[in-house]
Amino acid sequence: xxxxxxxxxxxxxxxxxxxxxxxxxxxxxxxxxxxxxxxxxxxxxxxxxxxxxxxxxxxxxxxxxxxxxxxxxxxxxxxxxxxxxxxxxxxxxxxxxxxxxxxxxxxxxxxxxxxxxxxxxxxxxxxxxxxxxxxxxxxxxxxxxxxxxxxxxxxxxxxxxxxxxxxxxxxxxxxxxxxxxxxxxxxxxxxxxxxxxxxxxxxxxxxxxxxxxxxxxxxxxxxxxxxxxxxxxxxxxxxxxxxxxxxxxxx
Length: 251
Ligand code: PGA
Prior knowledge:
Layout: E1 7-11, H1 18-35, E2 41-45, H2 51-58, E3 63-67, H3 84-89, E4 94-97, H4 100-105, H5 110-122, E5 126-131, H6 135-139, H7 143-154, E6 164-168, H8 182-199, E7 207-211, H9 216-223, E8 230-233, H10 240-248
Helix pairs in contact: 1-2, 5-7, 7-8
Bound molecules: 2-phosphoglycolic acid (PGA).
């Protein structure tokens, strides 16, 4: 059986002014250093305004830092956007691409997301490619075809288990307090694994995270599933104690 080291990632979304964000990041770094050996990798994805400072306060710790999005181009006339090399330049190691809030709020397609993932790889960032069905798609019985379709188009051919992480986040479970059942999560993760194994020589080594209302009370049962290799955590990642409890389920 392949040993995949879990990744617990916090997506802060559009939250945290400087004081709160730095307190959260430095608190996390302190806990990680105090603990010493950890059972997982830790990542936080703060808003762009805090990235540099969060890199600063976590730099001697096990806490990795990532952006929440990047542009597909390396530079140019794209007001308001951030290029992948800019994230790498300030010391980020990861970037989320294709979060459902970006797909919905900014009309990003899976093709756009593949381009962003390629830009991330070119800048030596690990791309966390997010996929997931809407409630309507689930009700129509289209979950696996939607998710497999998103994986097929969003994940570039140059992806490897080292430069890419997949995050399965059912849209209806994000920020709603509704988590997918263990059986629902297992079914989709198994299907994503099968697609990755079909397409990539190291398909078995890719980490597949679950996201959508992950909290201390449900993390253990989700993380115990064979093909769940970590979590992408929104709301609960803004509370140090809660995020830490999720991290500790991997100990
Ligand atoms: P949530 O968000 O944990 O608040 O549901 C997860 C995400 O959108 O990444």
